[in-house]
Amino acid sequence: MSYKSALLGSVLFCVSAGAFAQEPEIIVTAQRNPEDPPVVAEARERLSRTPGAVSVVANEAYEARAATGLTDLLRDVPGVLAQRRYGEESRFSIRGSGLDQAYHQRGVLIAQDGVPFADADGFADFQKLDPLTARYAEIYRGGNALRFGGAQLGGALNLITPTGRTAQSENLLRLETGSFDFHRAAAQAARTWGDWDAFAALTALESDGFRDQSAQHQWRGTLNLGRSFGDERDVRLIIYGADIDQDAPGALTLSQALSDPEAANAGAAAFNWQRDQRIFRTSLQTHWRLDENLLFEGGIYATTTDLFHPISLLIDQQVETQGAFGRFDWNGDLAGRRADLYFGASYRQGHVDQLTASRAFPLPPGDVRQEASGLDIFAEGRIFLTDQFALVGGGSYGMATRDFTNRLNAANNASKDFEWFAPRIGLLWESQSGTQIYANITRSVEPPHYGALVQSPVPGFVPVEPQEAWTGEIGTRGREGAFVWDVTFYRAELENELLSFSPAPGIPANFFNAGDTVHQGVELALDWDFAPGWLLRQSYTYSDFFFDGDPIYGDNQIPVMPEHQYRTMLRYTHPSGWFIAPSVEWRPTDTWVDYNNTFQAPDYAIWSLNAGWDLDNGVSIFVDARNLGDEAYVPEFGAVVSANTATSTFYPGEGRSVYGGLAYRF
Length: 666
Description:
Helix content is 7%, strand content 54%.
């Protein structure tokens, strides 16, 4: 099917779907919950103003599972690739953002309460997130993250911390246990007194892990203290700390991953690979209604991270990041037409002091300082040309700096500045019943982070250029009777795509700029309440990512992203409060591992079962059984130039496992 044909088909589907809508609701994600609290419903309504693919995932959607990372939180969101490598280390990509990244993440703005978790150069570590204490998560796919000033290809993920007023209960005690000596305990408290409110949470976790050399021990603490000064006027202090010790088992060959998936990479076991972090961050924010039509949101923040990361290299980092942001939201009339507008700015700065030493390869030691800053100025407005049809326009101006100091060799010192403008235009039609049809065109820009700029033994900066793309998108969302849908077609045409490959296990990847590349696909989420108590939830992602006449790789497929990814869950909820929900994760075709398209990871289907019971006394229990068939499979691997049976780049999926939990709310 050509892209033009796909767009035409989408338009016909959107128009026909909207013609029969009846219920006066706006649904912006198929991740719908039977009990949708007001704070989550408000977020869905706010995101529905975006002429593009957005989703909201409430804590209610995964609280009855042993959710320990983005893989569990985002499993039903189409367009998202979130696959666990080990522990909470995962791959996270939206529409192919940072798809090649063999470790951690780039290309998506990851934030909590609007405060970025990334270092100042945009490199992110999602292990810092705590899904268990998030009230809900906002996902802005593709070029729809302008509200944060983001111009990345993948968009943004924003987790919202509960307050003393929005928490699910005043008190929560939660205990979990399960396979591989998994144990977790959590306590939460929410209070209000007069104009003040507070939310506090503490979580402790330990696990031996499915694989050898994959044990983890961690604790996380959150405090959210707020003071109200009237309707929609408050100031809030949010403090977060975490102590995370994670062993790293490394990658295996395909045959090892399928025949002995519990084994660790021999080098990882011999050198005791680890990734240990100490994180502390604080932000002071305000949400202030200036008048009936104008609202201001803003804040300042600071984050520190101490990282001890012995792999083939010993990496010791001290990371400090500070920033500030502010955004005005206006709604009213313009030339007699309904209109709204938001505009603002976001600034960040920080540095990384890094020591490196060779442990298994003849690489020179390192003692460097990486300084970075970034500024985004952004705006987006809507004007309704008719009661149901809006024209949307906006854009962001961005600039970034990179300053590198090599304390052992001054000849390698380097600096570079980047500057860009990313415009955006879109259309949004919404029926009286709430059905929406949207289309947009957005430019995205991603300047290289230090991992791409600094590639030993090349002196100074490697001459990589910013990744740029134009993305077109068309889709629909809404509800009709028993159906809730969210469908998007998109095509991104990229220049200078930042790609990388792993030269050897434990060695940082080599980055390069590709020529022209294309990311295109379909994102579909569909809920069907076909009978009282019965819900069929489905999400499907089709991804077609390829080089476009590359001098080396021709029109080859870009590796790692599966062409088809399908997840479905059938849930029955009894009126007395118990539920049972079998589910399946299915990759129906093999997935390319290398740029030369010579080697593939096999397809798989994994069956799981979730069940639970909410009792009348505030107690709830659940069972989360995964991979019931104990299938050996490989959901995750790193990109290489050419792969074969001896290539160690594969991370085996977790075998059969069972987790159980008990929560008491009072």
